[in-house]
């Protein structure tokens, strides 16, 4: 796994864009128009899931945009409480998206009873069909990934987790690097305190915004940043994070935000550094 020219090169050789657009919570605004605008300005990684209710909207926006299918990296997921089997669930997602394949398919959540291990075995089989290019997991801990890998002999290529300065975990990063499991970070802004004084100082120094600083910090760690907005201005602002430069000193200072967050949570705080 390596970063190069705005992409992450996965173990299989596929290139995943470093900046992505999330489509969770469609009730908050016009998702179709938001996706079309994101495509127009250059986003090429899009994330959805059956539970988001946005697969059809995303697929329609992609078709209407005129952007070639092969230029876009599409991600969807297998629901933990799916009524369908693994193959049937994938086919349902493909029909809703209106595509022949997805670039990345994830097990959305691990299960308490370990049923995700059998699901992962089926993922491995389905990958050979050509309907999925890359398989991975979401919301898995390093221990759960190691268990999955040791039992099945197949390591996920991607792990999508909630990631922000307040949730920074060096052990998770190190595990990602040593096991070559690419990290995708969702809710980087929702899980951040955008009013944090340090982030504000860095933003003013660089002539950027705090959301851009947070997203660029993700990229500096090799973590794909999945932001979401239905505001055209915010979509453009978030995409601009790719052009921002942070110093190693600033990156290290942002890393330390998580230590303060853990101390607050240890005193009984719940999500102290950002909105839910």
Question: Keyphrases for this structure?
Answer:
single chain, 276 residues, alpha/beta, 8-stranded parallel β-barrel, 11 helices, disordered C terminus
Average predicted local confidence, pLDDT:
90
- Number of beta-strand segments: 11
Strand order of the largest sheet: 4-5-6-7-8-9-10-11
Strand proportion: 15-25%
Structural class: alpha/beta
Measured as a percent range, the helix fraction is 40-55%
User: Can you summarize the main beta sheet?
Assistant: 8 strands, parallel, barrel
Q: How many angstroms separate the termini?
A: 32 Å
Overall shape: globular
The helix count comes to 11
* Rg calc: 18 Å
Write up what this structure looks like.
The chain is an alpha/beta fold and 276 residues long. Helices cover 41% and strands 18% of the residues. The chain contains 11 helices and 11 strands. The two termini are 32 Å apart.
Compact description:
By secondary structure, the protein is an alpha/beta fold.
SSE layout and pairings?
Elements: E1 2-4, E2 7-9, E3 15-17, E4 19-22, H1 31-41, E5 45-47, H2 55-65, E6 73-78, H3 86-97, E7 102-107, H4 116-127, E8 132-138, H5 142-152, E9 158-162, H6 170-179, E10 182-186, H7 197-206, H8 210-220, E11 224-227, H9 232-239, H10 248-255, H11 257-266
Parallel strand pairs: 4-5, 4-11, 5-6, 6-7, 7-8, 8-9, 9-10, 10-11
Antiparallel strand pairs: 1-2, 2-3
Helix pairs in contact: 1-2, 1-9, 2-3, 7-8
